[in-house]
Amino acid sequence: MAIDTRDTREAGTVPRRFVTTTVEVEGREETKVVELPEHEPTPWDESAELRIVGQRATRVDAPEKVAGRARYTADLTRPGLLHAAILRSSIARGRVSLDLAPARAVAGVVDVIGNAELERRIRLASGPLFDTAITYAGQPLAAVCADTADAAWRGVEAIVARYEAEPYVGSFDAAVADGAPTVRRSSKKPASDDPTRSPNLAFGSPDVLERGDVTRGLAAAEVVVRRVYRTPVQVHTALEPHGAVAEWDGDRLTIWESTQAVFRVREQVALGLGISQSSVRIIKEHMGGGFGAKTSAGAHTFAAAILARRAGRAVRCVNDREAEQTDTGNRPCTTQRVTVGARRDGRLTAIVCEADVPLGIGGWDGGPAGLFHEMYSCPNVRTVESFAWVNTPAMIAFRAPGHVEGAFALESAMDALARELDLDPLELRRVNFAERDEKKDRPFSSNQLRECYDRGAARFDWDAKLPSNGRWRRGKGMAAQVWPTGGGPPAYAIVKINGDGSADVLTGTQDLGTGSRTILAQIAAESLGARLEDVRIVLGDTERTPYAATSWGSMTTPSVGPAVRVAAEDALRQLIEAASEVLDVEPSRLRASDSVIATEDRAASITFRSLCDQLGDVMILGRGARGPNPTGVGLASFGAQFAEVEVDAETGVIRVVRIVAVHDAGRIINPTLAEAQVEGGIIQGLGYGLFEERVLDAATGRMLNANMHDYKIPTIGDVPRIEVELLDVPDPTANHTGARGLAEPPIIPTAPAIANAVANAIGVEVLELPLTPWRVLGALGSHPERSEGSPSSR
Question: Range of 702's domain?
């Protein structure tokens, strides 16, 4: 391939090496100072002729996974390995005193640590590690390590815990009620001077965001719809639980961790233990799911590290399923009061959402408001989000946090409005298509949502009527999504050409099971002019690789991909310069393809391997960095999903028959992996819509369904026929690979599409997720006239 040698820095001026840019992560904006790459490649637009990018390449890690060679944290063994287990609180609020002596007497137990044994105070997202002040059920209180896992758990059971229970706060309403006990005293924002304000109202005051004048907009509306929607707490339920193996070599600590953020965990561990980051190495090889929950060091991390240092042996600490379901984060529940106004032609005049969100003992202001400002064109939008601290486990980002909750409310309200206006729901969405990012008054870098509507409707056969089938009522529904997925810096990569002409690509990102190794290998091979099998990706190791950010917010491909491309082109530039000397041909006449450098007429050529043989010990190292994001444009991915359901009017059971999903995420690097991402998001959204709901015991605040038997996630028998179409329209404005993120968008519209299909089937809305049989029957029971005969299908 030919390469572009343009320098990104302005000619005739002092070169600028660092600039400020804005990166949007999980709906929050961050300003970062980043390094400008030496060269900015020519964007891969629609005219780019690519051989490897865009192909259905087989996953590069498939052989080791299929053969069982892929190592996860729980698989790792070290010489003299000890096993650790954690004691957790059985009450939601109060104090505890522990007698650890009985645990130390258990056969096989090597060490026990509680609050008194910690050399320094270590703070987690949910509060201090092993604190004696209890703020939620499931809080870590102590840890035991032993020769075997069974002995460690026997040690945990032997600890004598004496609790002094206090009244706890378990809901938003309880948190803000008069006289409610104070849950926690920390705040991101200055506390309000209002003496009537609840001390449990997080961040000091509600978050209010408004454009236009909603009072005027509602006055101008000819139809107004008002609804109250409720969504549940959803637990991440990754198949691989959180876990860490820690080992000390003198004053150097190595931790093998199931994490989405090797560099972030390194920073937190170094800070918590009071040692330098250079003394800590974090390694992440393979992962069995994260979904946003594995972005920080946890109690398991520090327990393993501290016990390993005290014992002088490696320690493994892996959560059991109850701990995983209880204390690794969650998507918080919401109550959303939604008002939507429109003219008779369907044009929106006002959108209002007031949301109450109990975060748990910790969390951040990641509520549903964002979608209400971004999804549709509307001159008057107002959102008020009130967050509260409660005595439950802390919320943590969960695949498209906030937008998933908001989509159920907004998209359900849009369908309710369509019924009031006697408009087709899809036509209502087309009428209110947002040409630009109205939240920030700027254009989108690219927006193919209209095409998603058109292709999805055609593939689904949206206008066809569904036949009635006795007690099974059939219905159809749809929903749309937007999600900020532009990625951004900083991200670095190094491409190292080996003596045999193969290439190692080093970058500090993580593969969560999404296929990042394959995606980055395809980008590197394309940019280097190499065969895909000649490229190896090395990632997930803070000691071996340069920095890359946390894998969250659909960031990895659009963030790390451009850095890998720059590094590969830098390495290719050096290879071509060397080949020019060997072949006695001007560099401008040489191209690389299939690991061969040649002139266009192939009169002169040399393989990478032969060239490296002649170079001997000369090392080719390509360096790449992710440049700043473009200014003045919104970077987002879009999509639409269409669902067909059957509802048993006698039992309330819902069967999802099929889902058609059409998504726009810029250039698709690997269609097979991208389709898998969409299918995975839909299945997780199906669980959110139909089954998943944390249940707490009102008396104790403990989770009653903290296992995979009682906490229902979809099984293969629940998965409908899923049809995925990806538009594959490159977005060279977003970055020079043309790709945007796709990991999170597919989960956003699934539950509302299903809910709208259910409403279409039974003729009445179900306003609370999940759509359990008793909620469906409750909705039918509140409208007895709906129980006789099926409503007319669209």
Answer: 442-483+633-794
